[in-house]
Design a protein that fits this description.
By secondary structure, this protein is an alpha+beta fold. The protein is about 20% helix and about 35% strand. The N terminus is likely disordered.
């Protein structure tokens, strides 16, 4: 009967008792630590063998991050931080039932929000008097706060009043297959939340259909959600209830944390179908504990539009110069730069060595259990691919080539029509070689490469800057693309694209650090080009600084982040930004360089004032620890440096 989840949830009790997840409470935000609230989860001690509540033990409260509620669901049973039972079916005064289907027509009965202690007509009573919470004496003061918890009230086609905890509806109905969109909805208003995932240039309404531009491929249910959230007035109004309720500060604090009461309505404009488990309070009232099947709106046809960049690469072979030993990646401390010209301090620099060859551990998030909610979609979205091809040059090292002689291997035009057709039919994500009968004549399609941890870092940096805007620590920020143009969306940019667009030649760049390779089965496999994230940050008084993060492959330790500015906090010209990137490439992402004569490390001269910072990843929390405070501290230090 028991099911065991192998991934421990650290916020759950670690003792040998069995705990039932009885209900959800308020959302709480830990001040200055997280912009994503945790949820109160009410736990009740049970006797799992004799199938009853242990009444002489009071209910307890734990705080669980919302992304983990896909697994920590009402009705599940936990022991020693692991789930041991999916469904608890034994409730004293109410009838538990599985697989109950409901259809809702919102044209007839629009959805509503009710409080836990609000009178329900079909019950002639409130949930708080029927589905009682048995708090400990020390927690009795929390009852008034818990009574403010919101429920979604729906009237089914057969006139049943269906009550759903708002948090359960949020977990089940709002992008059940995409936690990242959920997190943004908890942080920002509807447009700021969804625009991170949307290519606005490719989004439109045409012939009564929704065309939603996507920054990357995603599940059908998420494409539908983004389309309705962008274009459907009814959906937008309902989804906006969530951010409005989270912004509403009524001055309530629970355990010294800000308390909020999320309001969640179905984003479905007209119809909704669910299959759920829960409790019958009477023949006309059903309390949903878990939704297992949910329909997706089918009122309007949706098409997802995805841009696909394909790099058509012309290869040239050259013999590399003898390389100097690569210095270790090090972090320069507060006083390692004294002027804009890169002159080093006479004081000794405290260098912290980082083993860049250390293999990172696998993250718990890679094994996270997927959502338990199944989707019904009668009108699945169409997918349109917009291919964009760009021509690039790639230099290949070959020790057998004559010294300093570059061999052009793609300048003649002896490529058969057949081979050209084959090349055009290759999927751009497949980085395999194509030959035309001559091994020296090759065309290769390569995309940028960022590992999972790098993507997580880039997204967390974006979250942090959004929080800084809300806190008014910064005025605004913009991503800079390969042309150093300001863009509002996070897009992958590579050193390869940027430097050659800005007319730097391969001979100026000593090797292919910007091209990532990995040895597999004795062969060197090319993964793609090293990505980076460059952000222009606007400060008060029309000042500017810049933040740079470097992408990596799985076998590398993460590179230091850097924040830099010029002497007057002015905007930097494109040529200056290109020179900074060039120096970073030449030094392989290191900001310190070994002085052979003095046998010590000196800070690399970037031509600007800069501060670096390191990253510490916590596998349990699935995030980089204290990164927001670290960045804020470095920005403040950069601001007060004496020029």
């Amino acid at each position: 009967m028991q099911e065991k989840n192998k991934i421990p949830y650290q916020k759950m009790p670690g003792n040998d008792c069995n705990y039932l997840v009885l209900n959800y409470g308020a959302a709480v935000k830990i001040i200055n630590e997280s912009s994503i609230p945790n949820i109160q989860v009410i736990l009740r001690r049970i006797d799992i063998n004799n199938q009853y509540f242990i009444k002489n033990y009071r209910d307890i409260i734990v705080y669980i991050p919302i992304p983990e509620l896909d697994e920590v669901r009402i009705g599940s049973v936990w022991r020693k931080r692991e789930k041991v039972l999916e469904k608890w079916k034994f409730f004293d005064d109410s009838e538990y039932m599985e697989d109950v289907d409901f259809n809702f027509d919102f044209n007839i009965n629009p959805p509503q929000i009710v409080k836990f202690n609000e009178k329900i007509d079909s019950l002639n009573d409130s949930l708080s008097n029927i589905y009682k919470i048995n708090f400990q004496n020390t927690d009795q003061y929390k009852i008034p706060y818990f009574n403010k918890t919101n429920y979604t009230k729906l009237i089914s086609d057969d006139n049943i009043t269906v009550l759903i905890p708002c948090i359960e509806l949020f977990v089940s109905a709002y992008t059940p297959e995409q936690k990242q969109i959920k997190q943004r909805l908890l942080q920002f208003n509807i447009d700021d939340a969804i625009n991170e995932f949307i290519n606005l240039e490719n989004s439109k309404i045409e012939n009564q259909e929704y065309y939603i531009g996507l920054n990357k491929k995603m599940e059908d249910s998420n494409i539908k959600f983004l389309a309705y959230a962008k274009f459907n007035k009814t959906s937008r109004n309902r989804i906006s209830k969530l951010s409005s309720s989270l912004e509403l500060d009524e001055g309530y604090f629970i355990d010294k944390c800000q308390a909020r009461y999320p309001m969640v309505l179905p984003y479905h404009p007209t119809h909704l179908f669910i299959t759920s488990d829960g409790l019958w309070f009477n023949e006309k009232t059903f309390l949903v504990q878990r939704i297992y099947i949910i329909s997706i709106p089918s009122d309007i046809t949706v098409s997802g539009v995805i841009e696909k960049e394909i790099f058509k690469v012309e290869k040239k072979i050259y013999k590399p110069k003898e390389k100097e030993p690569k210095p270790k990646i090090v972090e320069n401390e507060e006083e390692n730069q004294n002027n804009e010209n890169g002159q080093n301090s006479s004081d000794e620099i405290n260098i912290i060595g980082i083993n860049s060859n250390k293999q990172p551990k696998k993250r718990i998030s890679l094994f996270r259990i997927k959502t338990q909610v199944n989707i019904i979609d009668e009108n699945k979205p169409k997918i349109e691919i917009l291919e964009k091809e760009e021509e690039k040059i790639e230099f290949i090292e070959d020790e057998k080539t004559e010294n300093n002689k570059q061999i052009d291997i793609q300048n003649d035009e002896e490529i058969s029509k057949k081979n050209i057709e084959n090349i055009e039919n290759v999927d751009g994500s497949d980085a395999k070689k194509l030959t035309s009968g001559d091994d020296s004549r090759q065309i290769k399609y390569l995309l940028s490469h960022c590992d999972v941890e790098t993507n997580a870092l880039f997204n967390q940096i974006t979250e942090i800057l959004n929080t800084f805007k809300i806190e008014k620590f910064i005025v605004d920020y913009k991503f800079l693309d390969k042309n150093f143009a300001e863009v509002t969306e996070l897009k992958e940019t590579t050193f390869y694209e940027t430097l050659f667009i800005n007319k730097f030649e391969k001979k100026e760049l000593k090797d292919n650090w910007y091209l990532l390779r990995q040895r597999e089965n004795g062969e060197l496999k090319e993964l793609g080009y090293r990505g980076y994230l460059l952000i222009e940050i606007k400060l008060a008084d029309d000042k500017y600084c810049y933040l740079l993060e470097i992408g990596k492959k799985e076998s590398e330790s993460i590179y230091l982040g850097v924040i830099f500015k010029n002497i007057n906090f002015n905007k930097l010209a494109n040529k200056n930004l290109a020179q900074i990137l060039r120096k970073i490439v030449i030094n392989h992402g290191n900001y310190s360089k070994k002085d052979k004569k003095e046998k010590k490390f000196n800070a690399v001269d970037l031509g600007v004032r800069y501060k670096t910072y390191s990253h510490k990843f916590d596998e349990k929390l699935n995030k980089f620890i204290n990164l927001d405070n670290t960045i804020k501290k470095k920005m403040k230090l950069l601001n007060i440096l004496k020029i």
